[in-house]
Description:
The chain has 305 residues and is of the alpha+beta class. It has seven helices and 17 strands.
Amino acid sequence: MTSTTTDLTGWTHTYSGKVRDLYAPDDSDAGRAIVAEHGDVVLVVASDRVSAYDNVLSPGVPDKGVVLTQLSLWWFSQLADIVPNHVVSTDVPEPVAGRAMICRRLAMFPVECVARGYLTGSGLAEYRVDGTVTGIELPAGLVDGSRLPEPIFTPATKAELGDHDENVPFSTVAATIGDEPAATLRDLTLRVYARAEAIARERGVILADTKLEFGTDPVTGEVTLGDEVLTPDSSRFWPADEWQPGRAQASFDKQFVRDWLTSAASGWDRASDVPPPELPADVVERTRARYLEAYERLTGEPLPL
Length: 305
């Protein structure tokens, strides 16, 4: 059974995205105790929902929420010397144990901070048109999966649920939030990518690209890493021993879902307004196995379930 919003002592549900549910302390004694202990916090719960092509699909992928949360926590610890993160506590209500974390409420920057070390996805699509990604000129002759000469910062605007993020040049970010904050986000994004790429490579995994979100901590004033980090939902992880530029790469994510949706077997027309059909059990199970494998490959330990 996939996870959904639920009644949690001391917390009230405030928002649901494609994958995550947010809760804030309520006005009960339990809620006031949470505020007294932790300050202005939110409970971030990763559900088992899976999305593709801007649609939330059914059914979800069992244990996906646990993978996202536990892998994020592992990465936060690997990056703690580079940038602080928003996690305050993992002492969460029992119904969401393992897939939730209590986090400082940040003043989020309105930008998706993307680092790319390899060319694929929307970056490849732009490159094929004009040889650039968010205005950054790249060498000629690159193909799907090519390693870039050096990692690049390719930000995007944040989209509302159901809309597409839009890749934008660095100058747009600077004009939106200021030159200095924009430069800080670019530097932190590339530093996080460099650390994570090296760690993943040691484990036989290529980190092709990743999306990060930052905010300002109202208590410390520091730029702080928020949301999730370096999971198969926010990053492209490829098995290093299967990497072959010039084609789509095998990946540790929901690629099984995407492939089935765009196949004749699904009978779904992506260009239509018709919602996607229900996912077959074998696609769900293969996707679950891929998420669990990603966790184990990166951390070196099986996921505690």
